[in-house]
């Protein structure tokens, strides 16, 4: 497969722009004639989850996967067409669009072999440039980290992506970069989530990180999402590889909020004739509250339905106390009985950790015999028989005189 075919297909093994799966778009309007997009605007993808929209002013017959040369500032850039047709207008509402004097930038031409060769040379310089840029920033004692470097297709400009907690004065840094790399410099700040999305990795669920596979827009995650779902506020379990709260905390948040719309507040103790009960935990989708007796009172946990809790709170506000709290039966899910032989789980992972009986027998044989001279009470039955080993276990015949 040639390099141009790899670029067009977005081969994962190559280091081309747009090889990330989350930059791909499924065109569900592919079979519909192009009616809403008369200007023939196309979506072009680049490296580092960067996309932009360009006008096909030359009337080129473009399709998804074509490598094109587009207008840039300065010069031109090389990208891959990721979407054409009417769906482009809907995508423009979701992403940031770059305008020049109120108009979209232009598509110059389909990339020539010379353009692709120059682009590949530029991408080959990115890793070494990033390492040198990090060393220069460290020498200048700047509190920042260079996360990645992206060269423009014509090698006239480079974008340096950096991470910093506070504002950084990098005017001197830009001068040193320009003198060292002999290109035009652009500094672009990114967050920890964007960096983790570009680096990638495997999450605790065993799947590829969502930010590196399909998430394009990051939504803020707060600890309230964990509180609504009754998750322990443990920073080590709630934080992802980026050091921030996991994005998946928002996935089921709406379902938990809808289920708790009619739930009573859990900070109100339940008053009974035998004492007060405090809230312990909740099973939201089973609509159960678990209560435990207050301090210095005997008793265990009690499971009460949400409707009954609301009724008890209403009675307490009226000055009445219920005789006692009785736990409601909780349905326990039975394990599924398999009607086939489960081959995968027949060998336990800790089967070698358990001491075997043969190993114990070997240990007993290796033990040294105790000193029988010190133990006169030992019976003669425990002593080894003397004589020839062949006669072991047989009665001795008396000698003839």
From TrEMBL:
What do the Gene Ontology cellular component annotations say?
Answer: cytoplasm
Q: Region annotation Disordered: residue ranges?
A: 348-401
Q: Which PANTHER family match?
A: PROTEIN PSP1
Record PROSITE patterns: PSP1_C
- Residue ranges with Low complexity bias: 371-390
In terms of domain of life, where is this protein from?
Bacteria
Domain PSP1 C-terminal, first and last residues per copy = 105-190
Name it.
Answer: Cell fate regulator YaaT (PSP1 superfamily)
Checking Pfam families in the record gives: PSP1
Query: Which residue intervals are annotated with compositional bias (Basic residues) in the record?
Result: 359-370, 391-401
